[in-house]
Amino acid sequence: MSSLWLILLPALALVSWWLSEPWRLRRRRARIVRTPFPPAWRAILRRRVPVYRRLPVVLQRRLRERVQLFLADKAFIGCDGQAVDDEQRVTIAAQACLLRLGQADGGRFPGLHQVLVYPGPFVVDRVAHGVGGVQQDQRRVLLGESWSQGQVILSWPDARDGAALPDDGHNVVLHEFAHQLDQENGAANGAPPLGSRQRHARWAGVMQAAYAALQARLAAGQPGVIDAYGATDPAEFFAVVTEAFFERPAALADEQPALYAVLSGYHGLDPRAW
Predict the structure, then answer these.
(1) Which of 175, 238, 246, 244 is nearest to 208 (CA)?
(2) Contact 32, 106 (CB under 8 A)
(3) How many helices (H) and strands (E) does the chain have?
(4) Please, what is the end-to-end C-alpha distance for the chain in angstroms?
(5) Rounded to whole angstroms, how far apart are CA atoms 259 and 238?
(6) Which of 3, 63, 107, 235 lies at a CB distance of 3.0 to 4.6 Å from 188, suitable for a disulfide?
């Protein structure tokens, strides 16, 4: 009997620890948001993230809480000589947390572990598959990238400038963190977790129609709200329309009302009111 208990007790302790994890997480997050938001961080929000000043008071408070949680959970790493301080961390976190501002789960990006910050556009090497299966090395210069392994990579000047111009429809932080949302249920395919088959069916129908409309508009040479890069594939389409949803909401709603409605339902927000 004693030998059996020697085997069972560690197993029971492990199960008990695992079952208590959600409670411990909630307790830790509650402790973090009870900590006063640093005045220096608030100054950074007001100076670097103009959209913060437009938010209703209740959403300003929620964004501050989400920023606190984000910065407590995610590591920021400077690359290629980039120094990372609160200016970079708060500016990037605030933009990322806009995407989860209307969510009831505390605004987490559960698969994200690190944000890598470069002093400018960075170079990546890829293997491209050409005609006949021929592989070619391809070098690309990027402003940002989202990895399913838990990293987002950003050019700091572009992350900074994207926040400073909240109405131009282009924001590298929103774009790359939209990919993180998309990657929560596997490889990015333009369909983040939606919670039910009915919502997935509605999402797929609206997104496919809007994607086809973008391709038709581009073929006809007509201008529009959604950037042409969205026609690359469904994953990029979702990231691009996320930028438009937060930065040009009224124009997007006028041009694509069904698309705006499903995005508003997913994010739990209506940026037109800001």
Answers:
(1) 238
(2) no
(3) 12, 6
(4) 67
(5) 10
(6) 235
Count of residues for the chain? 274
Q: How many angstroms separate the CA atoms of 153 and 172, rounded?
A: 10
Q: Say what the pTM is.
A: 0.86
In a structure prediction context, what are the per-residue pLDDT tens digits for the chain, which is 274 residues long?
566 666 666 766 566 555 655 555 567 666 766 788 999 999 999 999 999 999 999 999 999 999 999 999 999 999 999 999 999 999 999 999 999 999 876 668 999 999 999 999 998 876 555 556 655 567 788 999 999 889 999 999 999 999 999 999 999 999 999 999 999 988 999 999 998 999 999 999 999 999 999 999 999 999 999 999 999 999 999 999 999 999 999 999 999 999 999 999 999 999 999 9
Burial zone of 258 (CB within 10 Å; 0-12 exposed, 13-18 middle, 19+ buried): middle
C-alpha triplet 187, 190, 196: angle, nearest 5°:
95
Measured CA distances, 163 to 57, 59, 273 (Å)? 19, 17, 19
Cα–Cα dist 176/114, whole Å: 13
Per-residue tokens: 151: 């990293």
Q: Give the dihedral of Cα atoms 48, 147, 194, 65; nearest 10 deg.
A: -30
β strands within the chain, DSSP E: 75-78, 114-118, 122-129, 135-142, 144-147, 151-155
Q: In the chain, what is the greatest distance between 2 CA atoms, to the nearest angstrom?
A: 80
